[in-house]
Amino acid sequence: MSTEKIDKRLGYWASQEQYAMQDLLKFVIEAEKYGFDSCLTSDHFHPWWHDNGYGNFTWIWIAAAAERTKSMQFITGVTAAVYRYNPAIIAQAFASLDALYPGRIGLGIGTGEAMNEVPLGFDWPDAKTRLTRTTEAIQIIKKLWKREEKEEQVKKGKENVRSYDDNDGFLYFNGKYFRIKNAKLYTPPSGKIPLYMAASGEEATRIAGQYTDGLITVQKPDKSKEIFDIFDKSASERGKDPRSLEKIAKPKISYSEDYDKAFKATEFWRASLIEDIFDLDISDPRKLEQKAKEEVPDEKVKESTLIVTSIEDLIKPIEEYFKVGYTRVYVHSTSPNEIEFIQAFCDKILTYFNDMTKR
Asked: I need a labelling partner for 111 at 20 to 30 A (CA). Which of 209, 210, 333, 351 fits?
């Protein structure tokens, strides 16, 4: 059992749905220049919002961003391994990224949204099915990365055998939803790629504790204890030390000295606040936008976002995340002027927390 503890750190969030790829490159270059060393970035096919939305292919952007930065780490938040991405292809893609940029690549896995799967011809299943598919996908990815011990060797052809890895490193996996037939990564990762899972429900949180290196959740500090307890217990039962695992938050922030401008800039994320959004079979951003305008009141948007006119007002809310046990906080800015936000945040907030960790 590992006893290594995780340092508490701040990171930068890059929204692939909200900004052009070129703008996001400018943002992460600036973010690294001013002190950020890690970036969590979304992985979508469709955006949450139709007006001024984007559909960047995140994996390509990560390669471009890693090439243009010096040492920043890039993690998806999150990649859905349920339909449009076969888990073996995910394993291959991130192993190749890690071969190019050793130690700078991480993978976040989640059960996805209809907007990213249904447009490609798939039906949107219930949450239990998506979680089972995700669990199988995680197992396949880790086995192809050689992140799990080899299982007992068995003869090929036995359909009741779940998986095996032969002496040459070829993987056979016979799951309920995914089948891998003697696959091998001929370009393996350069080292250990951290794998995280997004979860908020009880069962998904257990799976994250069992199989991954950390939990990504949108729970606010005052709602986090229960989910942390479930995660820690599940990890411990698997023989892992919870103190060695990440707990990742992604608070949404909008900063401007003009409050009205700061609030207006949050509009793009209104659809993410639709009730039961992850279970809804709505994949058309035009419909999501219309439904959000009809059903999500301004007050709910304000409650979900840290809207500030003074950058220093972010210190206390971020401190709350660290106090309850989060190890990484990726600031998801939807500010009117992103470069201004990055510079102000790094100057006042990132410096403050970095100084705190040195004491």
From this structure: 333
